[in-house]
Amino acid sequence: MNENEVGTLIVQTAIELHRELGPGLLESVYEVLLAHRLRQKGLRVERQAPVPIEFDGLRFEEGFRADLIVEGKVIVELKSVEQVHPAHKKQVLTYLKLTGLKLEYLLNFGAPVMKDGIFRIINGRIE
Question: Going from the N-terminus, what domains does the chain have, and what CATH number goes with each?
Fold first, then answer.
């Protein structure tokens, strides 16, 4: 599976989950349930995956934790807020840069309609 195929399954699953549960739960609830559903679909999912960073020639084993990394190809950052803040978007751009991965999704389960809470980030560009 390539990044786009994995991304399609992530988005479909997030929409299904949001329709079933609605907005307003804690981010951690959506995280565990989304990971569970993606695994049911046969995807490899890491939760709270430590991502090392290299800086000034040093390697720091835990630069940050990604909410989900799916198939080792796509990062998923989850929020459950009324509105995504510009700082959230900067955060995910940095995650892509530090990991070298090409695709990330910022999913805000706090949005009244899930499609309004989906942000796709490709190679440092938010769509």
Answer: 3-126 (3.40.1350)
Q: How wide is the angle at C-alpha 111 spanned by C-alphas 107 and 114, nearest 5°?
A: 60
HSE of 82 in the Cβ direction (CA atoms, 13 Å)? 0
Distance, in Å, from the CA atom of 22 to the CA atom of 126, rounded to the nearest integer, reads: 25
**Is 127 a residue whose pLDDT tops 70?**
no
- For residue 7, give the nearest of 53, 60, 69, 61 by alpha carbon: 69
CA separation for the pair 106, 117 (Å, rounded): 8
Residues 57-98 pLDDT 10s: 988 887 789 999 999 999 999 999 999 988 888 888 888 888
Burial of residue 91 (number of CB atoms within 10 Å: 0-12, 13-18, 19+): middle
Rounded Cα distance, 14 and 58, in Å:
37
